[in-house]
Amino acid sequence: MKSNYLLIIFLLFSTFGFSQSVIVEGIVKEKATGLPIPGANIQVKNTTTGTVTDFDGAFTLKGISSGATLVVSYIGYKNFEYKVNGSNGKLAVSLEEDSKTLDEVVVIGYGSQKRREVTGAVSVVDNKTLEILKPVKIEQALQGTVSGVNVTTQSGSPGAALDIRIRGIATNGENRPTTIIDGYVGELGLLNPNDIESITVLKDAQAAIYGTIGANGVILVTTKSGKKNAKARISYNTYVGFQEASKKLNLLNATEYGLLLNESYANGGAALPYNDVTGLGKGTNWQDEVISNSVPIINHDISISGGSDKVTYAVSGSHLDQEGIVGEQKSGFLRNTARVSLTADVSEKLKLKTNVIYTYFNRKSLSENGLGSVLFNALNIPSVLSPRNDSGAYTVVPNTPGLGNEIINPLAQIENTNNDYNFKKLNGNFGLEYKLIDGLTLSSSMGFNTSNAKSRDFAKAISYGGKVFDVVRSSVTQGAINDNDYSFDAFATYTKSIADDHNFVVTLGNTIYKQWGNGLYATGYDVPNNSWDFADIGLTTGIVDAKTNSSYTYDERRLSYFGRMQYDYKGKYLLSAMIRRDASTKFGPGNKVGYFPSFTAGWVISDEGFFGEDKKVNFMKLRASYGTLGNDQIPNNGYVSLLSGEATYVFNGSLVNGTATGQIANPDLKWEEARKFDVGMDMKLFNNKVSLVADYFIDTRQDLLIPNIPVSGITGVYAPGASAPTVNAGSVRNSGLEFSVDYKHDFSENLNMSVGYNVTFLKNEVLEVNNGTGFIEGGSFGVGQPAPSRMQVGLPIGYFYGYKTDGVFQNQAEVDAHPSQLALGANAAPGDIKFVDTNADGKIDANDRTDIGNPIPQATMGFNLQMNYKNLDFAVYTFASVGNDMVRNYERTLSDANRLNYVLDRWTGEGTSNYVPRVTTGATANNVFSDYFVEDASYLRIQNIQLGYTLNPKVSELAKITKLRFYAGVNNLYTFTKYKGFDPGASNGNPIGGGIDYGFYPIPRTYLLGLNINF
Predict the structure, then answer these.
(1) Contact criterion met (CB below 8 Å) for 831 and 917
(2) Does the keyword Signal apply (predicted)?
(3) Rounded distance, CA 896 to CA 403, Å?
(4) What is the dihedral of CA 477, 482, 483, 486, to 10 degrees?
(5) Which of 243, 740, 808, 992 could serve as a FRET partner for 129 with CA atoms 20 to 30 Å apart?
(6) Could you tell me the pTM of the whole model?
(7) How far is CA 340 from CA 34, 302, 424, 449, 678, in A?
């Protein structure tokens, strides 16, 4: 009996032993860096019990049975499993990065998909890339990191706009893609880069879900949010930088200038301007006078994020202050942003989301990219002139025929430039999600943008010595603009699986969009004290007869319905169909409604049984898409005629100002239509270390909006403000190939590397221009010359149209044997440029103009490298553009203007040069627009190089700092190019007339020292 009692007691203790619960504590870190991972998920296997790590990567689980298995997981890392033993203890978990990113979720518009199920041409830029690149504007982060995307600068001045082109230039109008920020239409360039979680680029028919605003591609921005059950995380980032010109042009010094001028005057039969050049010396380097070094840029960014079981939050603010390398504060840019993001689980079924962003910036600017701009003057003003005269005043440039009446002292120009532009914007969205039944979610979101801008420009009464820029009467022009829009989206998403193999996702919804605003401008004359300090219309005292004010107002709306069905069979066969119906007030009564369907499909070949267990090819997917999208980014009210013109009448013997009809109405106006075809392949090789993506695409844009279609002269289209109608009468096709390859490998616990390369080959061709002439002209060259760019059937949009050259005449015999060039303005002589008789009619005239260059690159590519060794990290990003031409138009073709030093290789006698013509004050045809002024602007640019060091977490944690990283970097380190100008990658943004260099403000080289701190 006694033994039985002992047995019972033993069994009871055994039961308690097996059923005892323990407390498991631990910390989760990255294996590669040793940094904590906040928001990692810890789950008891096969149960609903679990938690997430806090900001420090720590977690605690109570009441866990001995023998239970914990699964630790985090997106982008391999899962870690741990079997709980019978004692309490602290667990240290190191997660390895998982190269199998196929299960990552990709935003595709009104929903998301796993990456392996995506059937469209979609590219993603994550926040790690943004952290390395440190772009002032987010657009810069897309250059070289995403295939098929080309970003060009309109200027290197702080705050200047950047142009994004996705798969080429498809229209003579607006080519910018639509940006969707957390579900609402926004503006990419105004965001703080540190607020961005990811950027998704939709390049093909996948964007058809956005209808009339998707033809140019769609950029989806997801901003950062807090994480559930995470302690408050404070992150502070700052950097200080110093800027300098990345390139300066090689101009003639004073002695070289004097010698060249003497030769020019001698060849023209005029008296020499300099009898003795020995005392001229180096003279003034005007570039050094206007371009500064060590120009500061500073940025601060702070964010706080976290959350409980029901609520998450993220709050951030940033401050950027950047001076310009030309004019310093006169071309400065200041930007402040603030953001609040909240999500709340109101109940198990209802979720609330909100995200509000405030942006303020102030920008000052100088005259750029044109005849008489600051840099134009700095390049053309003679080096023999000094910045100031003996009395200390700015030197006045002589008003002589050899220097024209527009070249002025650029330092005086900077000093007398005064303007101010202030911009404030509040935008964001409020959203609700409600799980009605299992698999059915109802979503609604209201997005809004409201902005106010104020501008003030002061024209000081000043004389530059009888130049066209002389201001006889001081004035101030002020403007106030208010722009608003809102969108309301409501849609339902139903997810259903049948027999575990057939999976459906159906989305149905509608969008209401309204955009409205107004602007008011006015000018006042005779500013008190002729001073910027008193430049306000309320203080001006002048009276003028002409109208000095203007205003506008607009109100546009769009109503849309959309639907999408996604289907897959075992995740192997993938289908998606979309349709969107848009009704827009921008178009005439018969064209208000449009339908935009698209289809995509995919086949995961590697899931097929016949594929086998090939270890070299881990994943292979074929995909294809075709769809129709629209572009309604055109001026408002084009289908009606407004009283927007000017008119002056003689009434009772006096001139009376009135209004007149503006652009002639076209009630048949409708949106441009893009038909996009894409076929692609995604692959992962060698244990997922290598990723390959390849796409072939054809984008045909139809019904282009062509302005100024010829009409009967009876209607009168030549009055001020009047114009011919805009008509859908053109077509352009872009076709090409995209390819990208990425390689990631962990060589050891201390060393890992990531390498990426992408390339895009592009062909652009105009298919139709039905405007009566068969071409559209654009751009400008020199003074009084015909437009140098055209859009014409069979050629790239915006190609350069001018004369071909065939070297330089070496002697009079060559001149006599060549067709006459007199029609170009002067008889040829030895040393002049020899033009080609392209039509073989025995003479050189305007009919010999032809295709002499293409501003669109044939290929663009990016190469990026990231390496980590212990606590050191290194990254380099590059971009290349091949086959794009640029027009050298920053040289004033006047006899006394300064020149670039390539003129030292000019023709001075037979056999001396067959490229650079002679110099002379006499009449020649050397300055007409020809391929002599068109240069190959191919280039390779080291965009960013950065070296960082992260303090050992064991050391930084002593100060309660979870991460402390120092880094040094250089942005725009160097550009390899043969182009003579400042920036071979710049453009003025015009599809017809882009690639013409009027003296682009150079992009600065920036040296950065930065600090990242997480608490």
Answers:
(1) yes
(2) yes
(3) 5
(4) 180
(5) 243
(6) 0.89
(7) 30, 12, 17, 15, 39
